[in-house]
């Protein structure tokens, strides 16, 4: 599956992406707000990648994970995707992570808007959510710029760095969505 935005191309992840994904997940700045620890080695990254690749052939498909690359250079810069809930709820949860060198350029907002469009227009979802740590100001800004609204605080919901952290839940529903 391939999707293009103004500046990015999104492609379904493959085993060939393991080196890039390991590099991304090994960045301390990226791991600071991730529920995943920094992988101990590339073999750990390979093992973690298998379910996401296998999910691409599930019917119905419940998970879409994309490698993000710059359209002009094809340089990989991050990952993004959406996980779907049980069919009756027509709901998905969006995520994104970028290499720190590409932060503050609008790429996270651009890809989040793209995933929202995929969710509402192609997957026919009713609701798209995102969760973020209350201290992750960059992600909060991305979600708000992409049109999601903060709905509440979830206390001590996110296990990170050996402690439980508070998280905000953001959402956009199909009635709020405009191209």
Number of strands: 8
Q: What's the order of the H and E elements?
A: EEHHHEEEHEHEE
Sheet/helix structural class:
alpha+beta
Described by its quaternary structure, the protein is: single chain
> What is the topology, as strand order, of the major beta sheet?
1-2-3-4-5-6-8-7
Largest sheet: 8 strands, mixed
Q: In angstroms, what is the radius of gyration?
A: 16 Å
The number of helices is 5
Arithmetic mean pLDDT: 93
Query: Which regions contain 5 or more consecutive residues with pLDDT less than 50?
Result: none
Share in helix: 25-40%
- % residues in beta strands: 35-45%
Overall geometric form: globular
- Give the distance, in angstroms, between the N- and C-terminal Cα atoms: 21 Å
Looking at this protein, list some descriptive labels.
179 residues; alpha+beta; 8 strands
Overview of the structural elements:
The chain has helices spanning 18-25, 28-31, 42-54, 107-122, 137-145; strands spanning 2-4, 8-12, 63-70, 76-84, 91-98, 127-133, 149-160, 163-173. The longest helix has 16 residues, at 107-122. Helix 1 crosses helix 3. Strands 1-2-3-4-5-6-8-7 form an eight-stranded mixed sheet, sandwiched between helices. With 179 residues, the protein is α+β, with helices and mostly antiparallel strands. Helix 4 links the parallel strand 5 and strand 6. The protein has five helices and eight strands.
């Amino acid at each position: 599956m391939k999707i293009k935005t103004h500046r990015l191309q999104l492609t379904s992840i493959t085993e060939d992406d393991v080196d890039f994904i390991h590099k991304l997940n090994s960045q301390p700045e990226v791991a600071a707000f991730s529920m995943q620890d920094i992988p101990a080695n590339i073999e750990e990254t390979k093992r973690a990648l298998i379910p996401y690749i296998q999910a691409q052939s599930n019917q119905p498909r419940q998970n879409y994970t994309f490698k993000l690359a710059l359209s002009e250079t094809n340089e990989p810069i991050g990952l993004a995707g959406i996980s779907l809930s049980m069919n009756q709820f027509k709901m998905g949860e969006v995520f994104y992570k970028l290499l720190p060198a590409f932060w503050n350029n609008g790429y996270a907002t651009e890809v989040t808007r793209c995933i929202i469009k995929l969710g509402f227009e192609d997957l026919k979802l009713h609701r798209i959510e995102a969760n973020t740590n209350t201290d992750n100001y960059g992600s909060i800004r991305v979600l708000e710029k992409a049109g999601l609204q903060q709905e509440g605080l979830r206390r001590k919901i996110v296990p990170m760095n050996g402690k439980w952290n508070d998280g905000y839940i953001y959402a956009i529903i199909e009635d709020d969505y405009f191209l």
